[in-house]
What we know:
Elements: H1 13-28, E1 38-44, E2 51-54, E3 57-61, E4 64-68, E5 71-78, E6 86-93, E7 98-104, E8 109-112, E9 119-129, H2 137-143, E10 148-153, E11 156-157, E12 163-167, E13 174-182, E14 185-193, E15 196-204, E16 209-218, E17 220-225, E18 233-239, E19 245-250, E20 255-258, E21 260-268, E22 271-281, E23 283-287, E24 290-295, E25 305-308, E26 311-313, E27 318-322, E28 325-331, E29 338-343, E30 349-352, E31 362-369, E32 375-378, E33 381-383, E34 388-391, E35 394-402, E36 405-414, E37 419-425, E38 431-448, E39 453-466, E40 469-476, E41 483-489, E42 496-499, H3 506-528, H4 540-555, H5 559-603, E43 609-618, E44 621-629
Parallel strand pairs: 1-7, 9-16, 17-23, 24-30, 31-37, 38-42
Antiparallel strand pairs: 1-4, 2-3, 2-5, 5-6, 7-8, 9-13, 10-11, 10-14, 12-13, 14-15, 17-20, 18-19, 18-21, 21-22, 24-27, 25-26, 25-28, 28-29, 31-34, 32-33, 32-35, 35-36, 38-39, 38-40, 40-41, 43-44
Amino acid sequence: MRATARDWGTDMRSARGLAILVAAATALLPGIVVAADGTLSLRMSNDQRLFVYIDGEEVGKTPIELTLAPGRYDFEVKEAEYASKSVRGAGVVRSGQTTAMVGDWEARTFSEDLAATRGTIEVTLSLASANSTALPEDLAAELWPQLTTAVRCGDEDIASADIETTEIEGAALARLVKVNNAPPGNCLVDMSLFGSTASSQHLIEVQQTSSSDVELKLAWALVKVARLEGKDRAKLIRQDDNGEEQSTPLSEEPLLVKSGPARVVLQHAGTSFEVADLADLAGSVNIEPYGTLVFAEEVQVDGLQLSLNGKKRTFASELVLPTADWTISLSAPGAHPIERTVSIRPGQQSPWTSSLSAITPAQVSISVVGPGKWQLRVNGKKSEASSSLELAPGKYQIGITAKGWDAETRELELSEAQQAELNFELTAHPISVRLTDLVPGSKITLTSAEGEVTEAAASGSYEVELPVGSYRWTVQAKDRSSAQGSFELKPAQAAEDIKVEQPWTELARVQRSTRARTAALAGIAGALAGTGLAFIVDGQDLYRFASEQHDEYLALTDPDDILWAKELRDDSISLGQAYEGVGWALVGAAAGAGAAAAVSAIVGNKKAQGLSASLLPSPHGATFALTGRW
């Protein structure tokens, strides 16, 4: 081994001997080429001074630089010759290069300091035109900063911070690209602008500067938009190498771009329009994205409406539109619509001369049966009531409405100049009828003019809805005179209220009076009862017979029979009253005797025994019983 050190140890005789032996062998063997030495640099991360051993021999203290023949070397550092703790490492010495190793005593490791082994690359770049037309220097200089540079050494990409660019004074469109800290090995420098790429290859050795000159030829096109309207925007769209679309904004200022196939798209009113297809984009290109649609004066009628590609647009005699094929629609009230396809060309005027033709309206006659006044609705909108209408061809809903009547609607589809007839017959709303003051158990009969009968039973009140028309009504109830009347219901009127009067019949009034008197006298008699006298007085059978005669009297129709039945009924009532009068006279006498007996029983020595009294109500009278003995 041949080695030179700044600070060798005391025992290096073996190393010197080996170096001399190698030198002698080299001198004695002409024609043998010996590789140049390299440098092994060792230091500690905290600058400790430690003993360094190579192949077991001490060679000095850190930091140290050793000049060695190319090859792999194992080394070790210690705090003292006989110390048990040490840090071991290995380094490869390359011909003409410096291998810098940095040790970490705490981690017990050595690592290579790559920054100390790297070189520098310098590339002088100039820009030229790949087209037949020279590159405009002012525009190229404006976009010159967009130049991108990428450097790769082996499998390592160099960071952008290590790439410096410097403009070269006095040289138009030329610059110096400097790459620092390039690791040893093969390096490739790529520079690109608008998709054009220039490359430079370099073999880097330790602390070496590699230089080259490269010319980047730019395939270019100068694109300018003639004008833009309002918020419209134009952009250049093309595909990259991966087939993905890339867009570049365009304006009225010239823009330098890469030449080749592309298309220009205009963003107009939220819609995209392709205004130019550039198969070979190169040199200076002017784009005119608009044309003008001009309407003749005779086309411009009142109420004219315009649609562009199915979207409504405010009408104007001249419309500036993107270059494309447009579907133009014109319409106006009472006219046939027109639709055409118009090709708008860059910077050109496209005239429109087709006028609208008038539509012959359809005639619709209307007749309405029912209400005197009514309202007309056409497609849900109120219209003036009329027996005839003029309507444009199309589908319609014709409706008739009137207060108090059911609405009616008809659908029809009209063609031009058609004659149509619509007949409506409306039905009136039913009216609410209320009968009030009905006695319990009332039977109600309603008969319409057409003979339809409605029957019901009710108490207090009865309500029913009936169609318009004339009606007769009858109300019957037991012991009450029947009530009857008539009414007429008209459309849209308020509810019909009928107060029913049902007086008691003559028989019912007599019976009610008799029962009331009977109950009062029976109460007095019961209060004064005290004798042993027992009796029964009851006129109910006679009254029941009189009631039956009354019903028969009401059912008869022959005048003689009616007179006979009435007399028979009245006699029965009078007889019943006579019997009750006699009976209750006896009750009164018994009551007087009872009062005397009661006083005697209180103050005397006799008392009534087994005394019992009862009063039993009945439908047409009362039964009073009093029993006892002294």
